[in-house]
Amino acid sequence: MPGTPRVGIIPVTPFQQNCTLIWDAATKVGAVVDPGGDLDRIEAAIAEQGVRVEKILLTHGHIDHAGGAAELRERLGVPIEGPHEADRYLLDSLPETGANYGIDGARVVTPDRWLDEGDAVTVGPLAFDILHAPGHSPGSVVFVSRDARFALVGDVVFKGSVGRTDLPGGNHDQLIRAIKEKVLPLGDDLAFIPGHGPTGTLGEERVSNPFLQG
């Protein structure tokens, strides 16, 4: 039996990144997605919900998503899964990137498991399929819960927009192709949690997102 997911969004870092706590309602087993920083705030949310975190998931390697992952792994004693190995260079340079943006304490992150297209990730009884969706970063991945009809998309697509591609390793054409060929076919009813801003559905974006027309 698939589990029943619960979700809490914790905005972190000056970039107001949507760190997401996901857990199964019955077992309270969960994961932290994209702990970019503000770890005390993340741990307070974990405690408030009574979640037993079993892993950390990363959608990609940018500082606002991965900057706190190494320290949180030590605090919680859990492994890190994701992103795709194409983002290794971003994870290796997190201390320098953090210094450039005035974010203290960012450390190099080496995931316990790199993810690739077609892989599967479990969080307790919850199951996620992995899509490799490059363009915002070379190693961006999307976590898809086909049972619960929602996805964690990182900075691939937003409500009314798409991820920026002017950072090193970005490629706009590649990003649009990944969204149109991999993400949108998941179905109009699929809800998504982006890395910033409000949640949405793929159907809304297919019809109204100006970057996805034509």
From TrEMBL:
Pfam families: Lactamase_B. InterPro entries: MBL_Glyoxalase_II, Metallo-B-lactamas, RibonucZ/Hydroxyglut_hydro. The keyword Hydrolase applies. The keyword Metal-binding applies. CDD domains: YcbL-like_MBL-fold. Keywords: Hydrolase, Metal-binding, Zinc. Residues 195-214 are annotated as: Disordered. Its cofactor is Zn(2+). Residues 16-196 form the Metallo-beta-lactamase domain. PANTHER family: HYDROXYACYLGLUTATHIONE HYDROLASE GLOC. This is Hydroxyacylglutathione hydrolase GloC. It comes from Methylobacterium cerastii. The gene is gloC.
